[in-house]
Each structure stands twice: as structure tokens, then as C-alpha cells.
Amino acid sequence: MTAARPRPSFPARLDNSTAKGQPMPKPAVLTTSKPAVPRQSSAHGLGLDSQAVRLRMVQKLADQGVSDARVLSAMGTIERHRFVDSALVNQAYEDTSLPIGLGQTISKPGVVSRMLELLLNGQTNPIGRVLEIGTGCGYQAAVLSLLCKEVYSIERLRGLHDKARENLRPFRLPNVHLLFGDGMEGYAKGAPYAGIIAAAGGEAVPQNWLDQLAVGGRLVAPVAASGGKKQALMVIDKTDKGLHQMVLESVHFVPLKSGIA
Ligand code: SAH
Q: pTM of the predicted model, to two decimals?
């Protein structure tokens, strides 16, 4: 279904085409005057200018049909190689999921951008509060921080919650709030959310998420399909007349689990 969408004229917003040695680019939407990119931004171990590699990744995402300029700009700004182990840095800008420890993975850039585009679809710029289930290494939370006013991100594994905090520290993103807990319960204190996005797939969308979604808000999550063997991307819009659900393409996410560990 992505093939039918019109291609954006690329680059979407290239005040990004900074030569080496010049100041780093500003992200498209910044809710803070502080830099979203750590000051020392050379790509350790990449052996390449990381921004050039990142922009090639963004070009590929645009070629695949991602057309939202806000999403492309945010994906071009956040340094994905800072969220993976040093041994994997050379694969950081390939469209592949990578291990982040404790049996979990950082999602493919293609899937992250697709889900963020769906989340933003039809919303004002930037959207309000967003709840992310499954912080993992913190990469998607960082991208989200450039696209919405506040990010609440929950992780159930203490080791990854701590790792995300460490990974995100140099980015200094005051609108990202990391929470340790069971995301199946959502996070009622931050509700209602303009958007909810899950990076782990369960049998069904927990009722708590639907309750915590604002009227006018949108939820994007992988959910079990075909008798539980596969997963599909699900989009649920909450309107004043009720919930509208769309089931989209099949995806492959780690399982949504209950409890903390
Ligand atoms: N967005 C992440 C992707 C991490 S993979 C990133 O950019 O790296 C999905 C994560 O969801 C895993 O870390 C897993 O531990 C977490 N997860 C699974 N079930 C969860 C739950 N009930 N609550 C919170 N996190 C959960």
C-alpha cells in the first residue's frame, strides 16, 4: 500500500546538508532550545561522516514511501548508531532490527518511520502527549521527542530502562519521560494521550490503552493476527462516536509481556 503514495520531493528539509566541521543541523521541530544532537557527533567506528550515512538512510525511507517531512527530518537528526553496541555500529543505518540485549531488538528504521507517520497522520504539528510502550534502547523515544510535545515511555525490563536513560542523557531531551513498569497498564498519570505507540505486540490491545487515549487521538500497535501466529499493524482512532480500527500490513515485533523484570 505504500507504493501508491506520492513520493516527496527529497530532501524534505535540507538545511540538513551540513558539511563536516560545521554546526550540526537543527531538527525540524524542537520543543527546547537545547541541542537534540550530542555535541561530539563524530561516528565512532563508523569510519564515515554519520550524517551522510543517515541521510542515505532517510533517502531510502523516502524511496520506500515514507512521505511525512517531519518524520524524515527527525529520522535524519537522531543518531541511531548511538543506541546500539559498538560492534553493531556499522549496521546502524541499515534497514534492519538489531539486538539491544535481554533478548530485545531496536526496530527497523523502516518500521519506526512507518509507525510514526501513521501516528502523526492528520494531527497538528507537533502533537501533544504520546505514550510509548517498550522503550528498549530509547531510540524511538528520541525520534518521538522531535515530533510531539511530551513523550512518556515505559519499559518493563530494568536493564533496558537503565540503558535507555544512559543512551538518552547526551541528547538532553527534557520532554522525554522514562518510566519503569508494566506498559500493559499504560500510564494513567499522563493521560489522556494524543497518541499511543507500542513496540511490542500482544494478543489484543489492552483496554487501559484505549481508556487513556484522548478523543481525537490515535493508537498504533502490533497485534496478533491469523490465530496468533502472525502480527499485523493496527491503527485505532478514538472519536466522539467511538473507536475506528484499521488492520494494516504484517509486522514482526517482540512479544508484549506483562509484569516487570
Ligand atoms: N522502541 C524500542 C524498541 C524496543 S523492543 C527501541 O527504539 O529500541 C520492545 C520493547 O518492549 C522491549 O524492550 C520489551 O522489553 C518491551 N516490552 C514488552 N512488553 C512490555 C510491557 N508490558 N511494558 C513495557 N515494555 C514492554
A: 0.85
